[in-house]
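Private note to self, pasted from the team thread so I don't lose it. Backbone tokens:
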């Protein structure tokens, strides 16, 4: 798809106050507002004029920093994914025992997805469009590889110690954790309307967070097909 780019004039930023604005701060401000705009309205419904008005900058400056609406949208997706990927790298995969490490990773994902509903909405919207824009990113695969490598390290250490089954890989576990955490936020309203329970009810939060860790740990410690029984840690 060719992104329509209006005539935005010279490629240099305008003189005056815009020229002296800190570029990093300006980009961060635009990304924050654009995240909310696209999460609320999707790519098609998002408006650059609205983003400009809410950032106290100009449409011209947004195009200067990002190149166009589609480039800004992809940058928003990359920024959103970078947040969770950076948090995942905080798990001490080399020193924590494997069960504790996998529980920490699950809990971290749980906390992040609950605290960042815009991220969940962006992911849901992009899935509706079959990752049309996400697939054009040259950044996202590089963001994800360290996370899968860290998860792979946890699984390897668990297998070597005789704790984890050997028939699952890092993507399997990532999928299980993501499925629980994304569903809990993405389907909050429909689940509540049909079944009468708010999945983000603070009174049930600790229970659900613990349940996720229990589910993932128990699955990984269960004996796989054709293997001996794994040693289950209390």
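Design output:
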């Amino acid at each position: 798809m060719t992104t329509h780019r209006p005539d935005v004039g010279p490629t240099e930023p305008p003189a005056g106050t815009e020229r002296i604005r800190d570029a990093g701060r300006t980009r961060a401000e635009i990304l924050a507002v654009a995240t909310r705009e696209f999460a609320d309205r999707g790519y098609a419904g998002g408006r650059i004029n609205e983003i400009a008005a809410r950032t106290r900058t100009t449409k011209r400056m947004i195009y200067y920093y990002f190149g166009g609406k589609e480039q800004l949208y992809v940058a928003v997706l990359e920024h959103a994914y970078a947040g969770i990927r950076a948090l995942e790298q905080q798990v001490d995969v080399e020193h924590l025992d494997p069960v504790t490490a996998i529980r920490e990773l699950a809990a971290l994902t749980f906390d992040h997805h609950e605290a960042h509903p815009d991220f969940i909405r962006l992911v849901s919207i992009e899935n509706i469009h079959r990752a049309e824009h996400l697939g054009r990113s040259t950044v996202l695969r590089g963001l994800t590889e360290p996370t899968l490598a860290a998860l792979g390290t946890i699984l390897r250490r668990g297998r070597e110690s005789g704790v984890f089954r050997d028939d699952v890989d890092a993507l399997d576990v990532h999928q299980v954790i993501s499925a629980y955490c994304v569903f809990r936020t993405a389907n909050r309203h429909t689940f509540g309307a049909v079944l009468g329970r708010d999945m983000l009810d603070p009174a049930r939060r600790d229970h659900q967070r613990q349940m996720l860790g229990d589910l993932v740990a128990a699955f990984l410690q269960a004996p796989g097909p054709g293997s001996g029984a794994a040693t289950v840690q209390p």
